[in-house]
Amino acid sequence: QKFVYDFTEGNRDLKDLLGGKGANLAEMTNLGLPVPPGFTITTEACKVYLGSGEEPAALRDEVSAHLDALETRMAKKLGQSDDPLLVSVRSGAKFSMPGMMDTVLNIGLSDASVVGLATQSGDERFAWDSYRRLIQMFGKTVLGVDGDLFEEALEAAKEAKGVTVDVDLDAADLKKLVKQFKKIVTRDAGRDFPQDPREQMDLAIKAVFDSWNTDRAKLYRRQERIPGDLGTAVNVCSMVFGNLGPDSGTGVAFTRDPASGHQGVYGDYLQNAQGEDVVAGIRNTVALAELESIDKTSYDQLIAIMETLETHYRDLCDIEFTIERGRLWMLQTRVGKRTAGAAFRIATQLVDQGLIDEAEALQRVNGAQLAQLMFPRFDDTGARGGEGPQLLGRGIAASPGAAVGKAVFDSYTAIKWSRSGEKVILIRRETNPDDLDGMIAAEGILTSRGGKTSHAAVVARGMGKTCVCGAEEIEVDTKRRRLTAGTTVVEEGDLVSVDGSTGKVYLGEVPVVPSPVVEYFEGRMHAGADDADELVAAVHRIMAYADRVRRLRVRANADNAEDALRARRFGAQGIGLCRTEHMFLGERREMVEKLILADTDQERETALDALLPLQKADFIELFEAMDGLPVTVRLLDPPLHEFLPDITELSVRVALAESRKDANENDLRLLQAVHKLHEQNPMLGLRGVRLGLVIPGLFAMQVRAIAEAAAERKNAKSDPRAEIMIPLVGTVQELEIVREEADRVIAEVQAASGTNLKLKIGTMIELPRAALTAGQIAEAAEFFSFGTNDLTQTVWGFSRDDVEASFFTAYLEKGIFGVSPFETIDKDGVGSLVRSAVEAGRATRPDLKLGICGEHGGDPESVHFFHEVGLDYVSCSPFRIPVARLEAGRAAA
Ligand code: ADP
Ligand code: MG
Ligand code: MG
Asked: Rounded to an integer, what distance in angstroms lies between the CA atom of residue 703 and that of residue 759?
């Protein structure tokens, strides 16, 4: 097994083995781009180390061989005292984890070689600046020294000299600082800063391995659903120097704007600095376009390289580069993160450029991004002086969305307040990895410093969280927990509104308006020229691609005509679940009470007769809204006690009345009924088909209402396509009994109305027994609809209404679930029952229609699963329909 790859040996397809950074460094090397030579230690080596606590035996020799080759190539040895080779040791996992893992620059410097570097470069200041950086980074990330100690010493040095930026410190100052830094290391780490360059390198490699398992890294992985056992690769890369004076510098660039997708020159550049300075947002950068006037040759070369990379990767790339005395070096590239809106725009732009086809365009976007675009936005037309929200300032629109919450100035408070149900906006001068929990807890993030590539921006974008960064008019005072903007002071707890799409920040609550994408789906907006419409046009095209290729049909869960009409506008191809329980609520509750209290057949029939016309009217409206499309109506499902008064309330009422000796007959009977119907486990009690079997005439009445409504529509020359669905069936006998009765009722209605209704009768598969005997059940069912909510509850044996609050957090934290099984289908358990029921059902009845209704119908990952097991449709809430359409297209493309 080979544990080390030279940059010339890898390529971009080896991300599993070399990590993203290593694979792309190799790819750029092979493209002939200027990458400083180096090598990558594989994730396999990391896994061995993490598993056993020991590096694999062969690793040391392999590293030595590659280091020898590197030294030969560079014609100097690592840390050689008269002319040292310096390297960076850089982490790089398969998935980019911004700021999560540690990188150490300038390895190879020591008390001896710093002098050599000074002589060789002819720049003493540079040599000592590099050395202090090494001690600082190495001390912090490898030896675990508190980073603030170094920062404080650096600040003190600047203050003593009366300067504000580190470039104003000269060689003598830095020499002193190095001495202090070394003392800090000795004191805080209990050992001296290692002078042996190879020891430095080996310790740094180990530290990178270890950084895979820091709490921060684990939390980020859980958030992003990145598996915990991938390990990280380690890149050893010869150093190039951006801190060699004004003709040197370092920067980051995007081949397109990650916020809008527009092509152009986007990025930040910092003269006379090493890489970390830009990413950390410590000094103020200049816009990349300004590099043209600073160093035209490097600028032109960079633009050319960006074009090469974008054409090669056929996507937006982000880039880290360094210029050393007028010479450009590429230090990193990857397919860049982007906002949801940019993802759609870029995908269609690349199609237009002929770089990708429509199928590929579908893979470049996803349902989560579409869902994000459907969020409402701020309406800030009223936010100008005077009353109402006040504009505090404008920063960089780093991650879109409209967030309103109470101002908090530290992560601890953000977490505490959000736990108690408050919405908060985390406001920091700049964020660092320690703020991660606070960022997760917040509705939105606001910083006063840092650019599009600052920690806050990158992480927020990854989490899909609203973020405005670099709002420079705002002064953040963390200690006093407040910010000032001009003359306005915002204290902790004040409401602020943060617009991640425009970068604007307001004091007060700004009202929100619907998203243009929703306006488009609603048919209220069409393609045009301004910014919102460009997005709409891109969404329109992507949706068309998805609809063209998808095999899964998408239906809506809707109970009334209004929802049905909206669902239809959003692209629903029918109703997959019409719940009938709401038809028993409101003013009709009284009739239901009568039904439940009925002692005689006569009383029961009277109650049902009263309900019939009301239900029929509901169905007529619904069939009208969905004319020509299937409408699956589920017969009554919930336990009857849900329609009766609350047991405690009623008991109190009756007791009070009795004490006054004026108890009312009806209340007494109700109380009796409530007691009789009370169940320990209503979820597993008298509900679903069981109701139909024990309450004579109930299901017959519902079937009659459906059939008569359909007949009336038919006779009005319309095209109703009703389907009757029996819930909670566990055995085919239940279904047969209900079916017989339903068939009889339908025949009567057909005869009376002179129509042929072609009503389908089917069942939900939502109990394990139903799934296990699906072959038998299909004999009596023309369709199955998997009720994955109940199926998940019954397969796992836990109740959805209780678990979220009790033990789910613990399960998620312990990694037992990556995500709640009520959100994304549990493929191995619940999913395998679905799969076998599909096969058994189709074996019995080849033309069996198969669908799913339940929250999973609108969940991207679940939609892919349902496509794969061969369902005919998914059904979800109206607002999730576009997401389901898109994901069904992506699954098929
Ligand atoms: P991250 O994954 O946090 O971006 P990197 O490994 O990319 O960490 O390194 C952090 C910074 O250090 C980057 O900005 C990069 O440009 C700079 N850097 C890394 N290696 C070198 C090198 N060999 N020479 C010069 N700068 C480097
Ligand atoms: Mg980097
Ligand atoms: Mg159910």
From this structure: 10
Strand partners, 722: 631
Cα of 790 vs centre of ligand 3, distance in Å, is 5
Task: Give the closest residue to 422 by CA, choosing from 445, 446, 447, 441.
Answer: 441
Fold classified for 550-639+679-892: TIM Barrel (3.20.20)
Q: What sign does the CA torsion over 878, 882, 885, 891 have?
A: negative
- Which residues contact residue 352 at a Cβ distance below 8 angstroms, ignoring those fewer than 6 apart? none
Regarding the beta carbon of 237 and ligand 1, being less than 6 Å apart is answered yes
State whether CATH 3.40.50.720 applies to domain 4-238: no
Q: Confirm or reject: Cβ of 503 under 6 Å from ligand 1.
A: no
The mean pLDDT value for 345-355 works out to 95
pLDDT at 761 over 50: yes
CB 841 within 8 A of CB 776: no
State residue 282's pLDDT score.
Answer: 59
Give how far the C-alpha of residue 868 lies from the chain's centroid of Cα atoms, to the nearest Å: 22
The highest-level CATH class for domain 375-513 is: alpha beta
Q: Cα–Cα distance between 100 and 213 in angstroms, integer?
A: 10
Residue 134 Cα to ligand 1 middle (Å): 13
Residue nearest to atom 13 of ligand 1 (CA): 275
Ligand 1 atom 24 nearest Cα: 239
* Cα–Cα distance measured from residue 888 to residue 551, given in angstroms and rounded to the nearest whole number: 7
The structural domains of the chain, with segments of one domain joined by +, span 4-238, 249-335, 375-513, 550-639+679-892
Phi-psi region of 534 (alpha: psi -120 to 50; beta: other; left: phi over 0): alpha
- pLDDT tier, 666 (very low <50, low <70, confident <90, very high otherwise): confident
CA gap 39, 36 in Å, rounded: 10
Is the per-residue pLDDT at 85 higher than 90? yes
The residue ranges of DSSP E strands in 94-220, in sequence order, are 103-107
d(CA 365, CA 353): 17
How many other CB atoms sit within 10 Å of the CB of residue 274? 24
Residue to substitute in 269, 277, 331, 334 for testing ligand 1 pocket (most ligand atoms within 8 angstroms of CB): 331
Q: How confident is the model at residue 713 (pLDDT cuts 50, 70, 90)?
A: very high
Architecture of domain 249-335: 2-Layer Sandwich (3.30)
Q: What is the pLDDT of residues 581-605, one digit of tens each?
A: 888 887 888 888 888 888 899 999 9
**pLDDT at residue 528 above 80?**
no
Express each pLDDT in 39-68 by its tens digit: 999 999 999 999 998 999 999 999 999 999
276 CA closest ligand 1 atom index: 11
CA of 103 to the centre of ligand 1 (A): 7
Q: Is 355 in contact with 314 (CB distance < 8 Å)?
A: yes
What is the per-residue pLDDT across 194-245, written as a single tens digit (0 to 9) for each? 999 999 999 999 999 988 988 878 877 776 678 888 999 999 999 999 988 8
**Residue 485 backbone phi and psi in degrees, to 5:** -130, 105
Q: What is the ipTM of this complex?
A: 0.95
| Whole-number pLDDT of residue 371 | 87
239 in ligand 1 pocket by Cβ < 6 Å? Answer: yes
